[in-house]
Design goal:
alpha+beta, Rossmann fold, two-stranded parallel ribbon, 3 helices, 12 strands
């Protein structure tokens, strides 16, 4: 996304502003870095409405809902109509707001089960009635859900959980950094050297 923002920065969009005006911008896939969100707000005067979907689940989180709710930077939105979403801990117990856990879709309530034969397959992603997304998220008190990281991307260092997305977002805030990618390195503990 950084390349698009860089390309758009040199474009004189004011010339066509009278005829072309973005009212809503949507994004799905990887969460957007704060720099991109701020650029769209300051340069195009539009808020990006982020969403979350997977092939297995469809679009289960979105920021549409007639666009009459506040959009929080980094939030993938609210549960899409027709879906039931929960955040689970490692023992598959439901977590309250403010605690990161695994995004789980109540598969029995999912519109995906309305199609004959689609629900027949079974994978390790299913635990009881839930389809586990493999993503760590956090439920906010207002019901919105923010993407934290891929569950298998979390880095543990000196007993702390470090989310690669948070480190990447902090790095690209520096003007000398164009893009950043953070991965864990399975080396010996600093204490064992």
């Amino acid at each position: 996304m950084r390349n698009y923002a860089t390309a758009l920065a040199g474009y004189n969009y004011q010339q066509v502003e009278a005829t072309l005006r973005s009212r809503v911008v949507s994004s799905a896939g990887e969460p957007l870095n704060p720099e991109v969100v701020r650029w769209f707000a300051s340069e195009l005067d539009v808020t990006i409405h982020d969403h979350y979907e997977q092939t297995e689940t469809g679009k289960v989180l979105c920021n549409h809902h007639a666009l009459n709710h506040s959009v929080h930077m980094g939030a993938a939105g609210f549960t899409s109509p027709g879906h039931s979403i929960v955040v689970l801990d490692e023992e598959h117990s439901e977590l309250p707001a403010g605690q990161p856990g695994i995004l789980a879709v109540d598969w029995e309530q999912s519109p995906m089960c309305w199609f004959k034969g689609y629900h027949v397959f079974v994978t390790k992603a299913f635990v009881g009635k839930y389809c586990l997304s493999g993503n760590t998220v956090e439920l906010s008190s207002d019901g919105s859900i923010s993407f934290v990281s891929r569950s298998d991307d979390v880095i543990t260092t000196s007993g702390y959980r470090v989310e690669p997305f948070d480190v990447e977002s902090a790095l690209i805030e520096h003007p000398a950094v164009l893009e950043a990618a953070v991965i864990g390195n399975p080396i010996r503990s600093a204490l064992s050297w």
